[in-house]
Specification:
The complex is a heterodimer of chains A (333) and B (865). Chain A has 333 residues and is of the alpha/beta class. Chain A is built from 14 helices and 13 strands. In chain A, strands 7-6-8-9-10-12-13 form a 7-stranded mixed beta sheet, with helices on both faces. A 6-stranded parallel beta sheet of chain A has the order 2-1-3-4-5-11, sandwiched between helices. In chain B, strands 2-1-5-4-3 form a 5-stranded antiparallel beta sheet, with helices on both faces. Chain B has a 4-stranded antiparallel beta sheet with strand order 8-7-10-9, with helices on one face. In chain B, helix 13 packs across helix 25, helix 14 packs across helix 15 and helix 23 packs across helix 25. Classes of the chains: A alpha/beta (333), B alpha+beta (865). Chain B: This is Major facilitator superfamily (MFS) profile domain-containing protein.
Chain lengths: 333, 865
């Protein structure tokens, strides 16, 4: 009897400890558009580095709009402590726009950290980078100002004056980027040839291929990826097509230089972007303040990455002074 | 009397002091020169390392955002492995990245200070452990957004410094031994008894007195309790004779020794210049090589390097010492500039397949410029040492030879005249002290009324104050070279005053307090004694210097500097008044000219030494050094200056300062003198020399270093002219004409240069102005004294002198304000011309009226006053 009481006592104590432990370990989810890539891995690794007991759940829309539409309910059911959203499309779907929810969010009181959103202000997700205007929403930003990209092109190609851009009019982020670059072309004095791609992926691929040919004919000197999940997903096809027309691609995503045939990127490493989002998430989880009280955290390190083999194929080499700050990769051969 | 032996000892002592001073200052200069040379070399790597970050900024990103920044910084160490570390930091001093990881997360205060103080992108400094060269990174709008510095350990500099000191020690010892031997030969030849009639006469007098008093004996202990009889040491034939001979020997020794040591220093330092230029050319070549290698390693074919020519042009622009630079690679030669002078050439293996040749030609003018700068720096040290040596020689000769012999001669003459009422006790040389003791014993024993009728003779002369005044002036001026920068580093606690204006407050405080205290100096000196006044002022100056060194804010520094101004003017005028009261009128012009020359010698020496000291030992230490000098000056004055109050008694009622000194303007002669000489000279000194000259030279393309050197030439001309004035008869016999014509000459050249300023012309004007002011100093004092004894006798010397001192300072201040306002509308050139025109017409009027007046109104110092 004595032993039985002792055993019961131990079990009771153990279950209490387990309950406390279960209560204190955080559940963080991340909604993705096209599977877990470098940003997602950066988030996961950094979260676990900062809190080994953390529970990290992935919600992959697998590039399916229907799945994405069901995501808010799925996430709510998961009873997360914090949600990380990947990309403009996903973020708008999960939290809604300012116009729709004002200071609130589709996720209610759940804190949300967005990442890989090219222009969260123009996309009506937040008011500004310093004051989000949303009670439970903040995020990270990871892109250099577009003027830096244009300045970079001018240093690489001193006679640069004609940029090509492929964009998705149906994707808000892509459309916003087109508008931004179009305005910048007037301000900075360069020509812009922009080609829209519409419909399903096969149609978009077709539009892209013909668009690149049109750009070449129009005298475009550089193609800029802008902001397009489609082009990012079909990076190999996109960059190889451009290369076949002798057109270098400037990418806002570093991995397109390393893993595809993009010529140059002035960007942060995706994995580091994910780590930054995780740091922002942990700040919120470890404090009593509401997520919206944190300004959008900016990426602090960027690299000028050049694909050496593409440069060789195009016989387009940056000047000697620029080479001193470039990181050079041979890319995927 | 074997004077030549004593003079030889003095010469050795003197040479020892002179070589010690020269070697010490030259060592500081050597350390400064080598430190700068090494830092200039380091600057090449820093400029190279900063280029990619400047590119990042030009693209629109902060330097901290470059991900591979550590790798970019580390490349500088690959180029020059002697570099200890390369650090990228933001303007507030937080380290953004460093090539070698350390726990340090902020740069040192000295690095930040060097960055803040520099008006140019390149700057450098030295810490306790490292030599540092930095380069600021600017936005396109000119705002500093970051900086990079690289550091070398001090090992190389320490080794060079020890080698130099050892060399200087050897040559100084050789100079002292050789100089001693040569001086013995020279004095033996020059001071043969048959050629020294006056010396012989003095010796005959002393011997005669000894014979007259033979056998008499008394207790010598009473000597010190006897009342003092003060006599001015006259510039007698004997003094002149001895001065001429000894001056010739001492001057020759000084010249040969200092020029010799300067030549050795120049040779040692010059030896570093050519190799250093080669090292720098090699570094430029290595920087280019590394850049090209980086591109080739990135996969760019050697024959398709883009922007190579532009990169070479950029390097040529960034490194002004590079005359030409070329690279021959894959059979293609790319070059900029035309090679001349020394060329560094290196064969480089850029990749396993690419070998090339990199050549860098240094601009030969760079070497010439460095040689010239070094020569001028050492010349300044030679002049500084020579000026100090002159003062040391003067006091050595005066106190250990001329004074003792003159004193003994006076006593001997009194014995021979049958008075036997004076004793004299020189401390050295031993031979004279023993003879004086014998004489004193006999005089005390044989005095008609015993010891009660005997006085202790004390001789006083200009030499009493020279070294003290010189050192005090050095102490006052030494911080001038860095004072503005020192103020800029202090917090401005007067929030309502803009910082630019706040840093000028200490200068204003200095001038205003000097202006207020100037007329009070004489009455105060007469009341408490000139010696006490000087000592008090000098000791308080030491306190003020320490106060400045520890000042926590601009306001506190202003208070200390104002006190400094008041004390400087009180101490300086105490010396002047001492001489005015002591010296006979016929020596006044000469003595006042020399007095002013000594004062400006100190000003020159202080300015010359201040910059070197600040660079080597730091600004706070210079303030402490100046405090020490002021204390030494106080001690010297305490030991040398006779306490006039004890001898002359209290001040007459009519000598007290009162508002009545304004009545000076009731006399047309005073007004004419004030407007014709005092005011123009004050304007030339304080407005043209101190203000406009630097601005005009800047417009003429002169560097700050050149401007400082021309200013020093002005002081030197003033000093030399002042010293020479004592030997020019015209200066003593016609002081009014001398002062008037001097002012006229200075005015004429200033008028002319205002019409067409040029560097050479301004140099000439600085020298002429200095000489004119130097020649006029004695005559001005003579005229003041003359007026106070003739048409303004009812006011007394105190009031007339007080009025002149106020006029000199207030006139200068008012003219400075007016000149600033005039220049704002009409430019610096026309302002200069206006000053010249005024000086010309005013001085011409003074000369004409003086000549037209009856002779009785003219000053003639030969007449008895």
């Amino acid at each position: 009897m004595k032993y039985r009481n002792g055993l019961l006592g131990f079990i009771l104590f153990a279950s209490l400890v387990a309950q406390v432990a279960a209560d204190t370990s955080n559940r963080v989810g991340m909604v993705l558009w096209a599977g877990c890539e470098d940003v997602c891995r950066g988030v996961a690794d950094q979260l676990r580095a900062m809190d080994p007991g953390i529970e990290f759940l992935q919600f992959d829309a697998a590039r399916d709009e229907n799945v994405l539409a069901r995501m808010p309910d799925l996430v709510k059911d998961a009873k997360l402590d914090l949600l990380v959203t990947w990309g403009t499309r996903v973020t708008r779907q999960m939290v809604g726009t300012k116009a729709e929810f004002n200071e609130g969010s589709r996720m209610g009181d759940m804190p949300v950290v967005f990442t890989v959103v090219s222009d969260p202000v123009a996309s009506d997700i937040v008011d500004s980078y310093t004051e989000t205007g949303r009670t439970q929403i903040t995020g990270t930003r990871n892109r250099v100002p577009e003027a830096v990209n244009i300045n970079g092109l001018r240093r690489v190609m001193p006679d640069f004056n004609h940029l090509g851009l492929i964009y998705e009019p149906e994707a808000d982020n892509s459309l916003r980027k087109f508008e931004e670059i179009n305005a910048l072309s007037k301000q900075e004095g360069f020509h812009l040839t922009a080609v829209p791609v519409r419909g399903g992926d096969p149609a978009k691929l077709q539009h892209m291929a013909t668009g690149i040919a049109q750009m070449k004919a129009a005298g475009v000197q550089f193609i800029y990826l802008g902001s397009s999940t489609f082009l990012e997903t079909h990076a190999d096809t996109f960059t190889e097509t451009a290369l076949s027309h002798g057109l270098p691609v400037l990418s806002p995503y570093e991995k397109l230089v390393h893993e595809s045939q993009a010529y140059l990127s002035i960007a942060a490493r995706d994995y580091d972007v994910g780590k930054l989002a995780a740091q922002q998430a942990m700040r919120i989880l470890n404090s009593d303040a509401q997520a919206g009280s944190y300004p959008v955290l900016a990426m602090e390190e960027f690299a000028f990455v050049l694909n050496g083999s593409v440069a060789k194929k195009l016989s387009l080499y940056p000047p000697l002074d620029m080479m001193q700050l470039f990181e050079v990769t041979e890319g995927r051969q | 009397m074997k004077i030549h032996r004593w003079l030889t000892i003095l010469a050795c002592l003197y040479l020892g002091l002179a070589t010690l001073v020269f070697s010490s200052v030259a060592s500081l200069q050597q350390s400064k020169t080598h430190s700068q040379l090494i830092r200039d070399r380091l600057a090449i790597s820093v400029k190279g390392a900063s280029r990619p970050f400047e590119t990042v900024i030009s693209l629109g990103l902060p330097v901290s955002m470059l991900r591979n920044r550590a790798e970019v910084l580390a490349r500088a160490i690959q180029i020059d492995p002697s570099i200890y570390n390369v650090v990228l930091f933001n303007p507030s001093g937080i380290i953004v990245e460093q090539a070698v990881t350390s726990s340090q997360n902020a740069v040192s205060e000295s690095v930040l200070k060097a960055l803040r103080r520099s008006e140019y992108p390149d700057w450098s400094t030295q810490t306790e452990s490292h030599l540092i060269a930095g380069h600021s990174i600017y936005t396109t709008s000119g705002q500093v957004v970051g900086a990079i510095y690289a550091s070398y350990p001090l090992t190389e500099l320490t080794k060079l410094s020890w080698n130099f000191r050892w060399t200087m020690l050897k040559f100084s010892a050789l100079a002292c031994i050789l100089g001693g031997f040569l001086s013995w030969l020279a004095f033996k030849a020059l001071l043969r008894p048959s050629e020294s009639e006056t010396l012989l006469a003095a010796e005959a007098d002393i011997s005669g007195a000894e014979e007259a008093l033979v056998g008499a004996s008394a207790d010598l202990n009473v000597t010190n309790s006897l009342p003092v009889q003060l006599q001015a040491l006259h510039n007698s034939d004997f003094n002149r004779h001895l001065n001429r001979r000894t001056s010739a020997v001492f001057a020759s020794l000084t010249l040969v020794t200092l020029v010799g040591l300067a030549w050795v220093s120049h040779a040692v330092l010059s030896k570093s210049l050519v190799p250093e230029l080669d090292r720098r050319a090699a570094l430029v070549a290595h920087t280019l090589t590394e850049n090209v290698k980086t591109a080739i390693e990135a996969g760019i074919p050697a024959d398709q390097l883009v922007g190579l020519k532009a990169a070479l042009q950029d390097m040529q622009a960034r490194f002004p010492e590079v005359r030409s630079i070329s690279i021959s690679l894959s059979g293609i030669e790319t070059s900029v500039g035309s090679p001349t002078g020394r060329t560094y050439r290196e064969v480089v293996q850029f990749s396993p397949y690419d070998t090339g040749v990199v050549s860098v030609s240094s601009d030969p003018r760079m070497l010439t410029r460095q040689f010239r700068a070094l020569f001028l720096d050492l010349s300044v040290i030679v002049v500084f040492t020579a000026l100090l040596a002159v003062e040391i020689a003067t006091i050595l000769l005066s106190k250990s030879l001329i004074g003792p012999i003159s004193g003994l001669a006076v006593v001997a003459r009194s014995v021979l005249d049958g008075r036997r009422n004076l004793v004299f006790s020189p401390k050295w040389p031993a031979e004279l002290r023993l003879r004086a003791q014998r004489l004193n014993t006999a005089i005390l024993a044989s005095a008609p009324n015993g010891a009660a009728s005997v006085h202790r003779l004390r001789l006083a002369s200009l030499a009493d104050v020279r070294l003290g005044l010189f050192l005090f002036a050095v102490a006052d001026e030494a911080p001038l070279s860095f004072f503005v920068l020192f103020m800029q580093d202090l917090p401005n606690d007067l929030a309502f005053v803009p910082s630019e204006l706040a840093i000028s407050l200490p200068f204003a405080g200095y001038l205003i307090s000097a202006l207020i205290c100037a007329p009070l100096a004489r009455p105060l000196g007469q009341k408490i004694g000139y010696r006490q006044l000087f000592i008090t002022a000098a000791l308080l100056t030491a306190v003020a210097k320490i106060g400045l060194l520890s000042a926590p804010s601009i306001l506190v520094a202003t208070l200390w500097q104002s006190l400094n101004g008041a004390l400087f003017v009180l101490a300086m005028l105490a010396c002047q008044d001492y001489l005015l009261d002591l010296l006979p009128s016929k020596e006044r012009v000469r003595s006042m000219a020399i007095f002013r020359a000594v004062l400006f010698s100190g000003v020159f020496a202080g300015t010359a030494i201040g910059g070197i000291l600040a660079d080597r030992i730091g600004e706070p230490a210079v303030f402490a050094f100046c405090a020490g000098l002021a204390t030494i000056a106080a001690v010297l004055i305490w030991m040398q200056m006779a306490p006039l109050g004890e001898v002359f008694g209290s001040v007459d009622e009519d000598q007290r300062l009162s508002l009545g000194f304004l009545k000076c303007f009731g006399d047309w002669r005073f007004v004419l003198f004030a407007l014709g000489v005092i005011a123009p000279q004050a304007i030339i000194d304080h407005v043209f020399i101190s203000y406009l000259l630097a601005l005009l030279m800047d417009d003429a393309g002169a560097s700050i270093r050149m401007i400082a050197q021309v200013m020093m030439l002005f002081f030197l001309a003033l000093t030399l002219a002042g010293q020479a004035a004592g030997h020019i008869k015209f200066v003593s016999t016609a002081p009014q004409a001398c002062a008037g014509l001097g002012t006229l000459a200075a005015g004429a050249v200033i008028w002319h240069i205002g019409a067409a300023p040029s560097f050479e012309g301004l140099l000439f004007v600085a020298v002429v102005s200095g000489a004119a002011l130097g020649l006029s100093a004695g005559p001005i004092t003579a005229i003041v004294v003359h007026l106070s004894q003739t048409s303004l006798s009812h006011l007394g010397l105190t009031n007339v002198l007080g009025m002149v001192r106020v006029l000199e300072r207030a006139g200068a201040a008012a003219a400075m304000v007016s000149a600033g306002a005039f220049a704002a509308s009409f430019g610096f050139e026309r302002t200069t011309s206006m000053i010249g025109i005024y000086a010309c017409f005013a001085a011409a009027g003074f000369v004409v009226v003086t000549i037209a007046t009856r002779p009785a109104d003219r000053v003639a110092t030969s007449r008895k006053e």
